[in-house]
Amino acid sequence: MKKLVIIQVATPDYRAEFFSYLRNYLSINFELYSGDMYFEKSITSDSLIKRIKIKNHYLFNRKLLFQTGVFHLIFNDIILILELNPRILSNWLILFFRKIMGRETILWGHAWSRKGKESKTDWFRNIMRTMASSIIVYTNSQKKELQKRMPSKNILAAPNAVLKASKMQTHEFNGDLINIIYVGRLTIEKKIMFLVKAFHKGLSKFPKGTKLFLVGKGSERKRIEAYIKEHNLGGKIIIKGHIGGYSDLKDLYNISFFSASPGYAGLSITQSFGFGVPILVSKNEKHSPEIEAVVPNKNALFYETDNYDNFIEVLQKAYLNKQYWSSRRPEIIKFCKENYSTESMAEVFINLCVDR
User: Fold this and answer.
1) Which CATH superfamily is domain 4-161+341-353 in?
2) Lateral strand order in the sheet of 279-282
3) Which one of 41, 96, 152, 340 is least enclosed by Cβ atoms within 10 Å?
4) Using one digit for the tens of pLDDT, what is the confidence trace for 269-290?
């Protein structure tokens, strides 16, 4: 069995289950390298994830990155997995020299940039993809799209997941299931202030006692706190901060009717489904590939982007069909178990080195 080595910019806590599974299965044949902080400062490495620490050197206001402490890996006969991100300059060097030496190097990440597959700069990203031995993308739909662009390249799909199948369970709640939950970064890009204002505007139309839980950290927190204070919304909009522990997240999802994604949606989709909670999604956003998991009227509802009235209207209708949505929770979990578990995600990586 060949050793599997992964280099990451950062290793946040939502990756803990995934890396733990790889380490438990591969034992000494697995190594993980990462820095302490991602391009976005709100994403930091979890101290509980076992890793070899490396240095992240950010350039041009954190637009580019050069990592040190990894160049000895160029010469090793291992399966090396790098992030598919052209902004990581050191990855270009590692890819180039390992290709010359005939070493196996795999890129893992989004098939396309945030601007999509028709981006004018995709030719640059494609140079990086061409140098890789294989490519691992986050969804089956991205695999199909990229395979059309690169028919001779070995492309694998490891559907992005945050929970083990065993942790995806229905949990009985004796109270009234009316709360809304947001889990993610509190940033401008995630449009968190839209959610806060939309919830406030519709509060009188929602069931009495409805609360909005905000789970995460980011630059918008102070603005949210000021808004809550100005409009006397304490106890109605509750900022929980970052929560990485399964039990605490489970308890919050357990008392939530819907989760919400006011900006582009990503891992929050499969996380919400893992707890059986349907999600309310902004319609016209450049969503991350996890959007493929959304099935309207089965595990999610869309509202018109940046439209307060439509957000309120869609959520009102959901409350009118509360019994239906509550009954959907076991099916939502079943769907997530079958398609988006950390075990199935990790198996794609394990299969790279088994019997080799």
Assistant:
1) Glycogen Phosphorylase B; (3.40.50.2000)
2) 237-241, 212-215, 179-183, 256-261, 279-282, 300-303
3) 152
4) 999 999 999 999 999 998 888 8
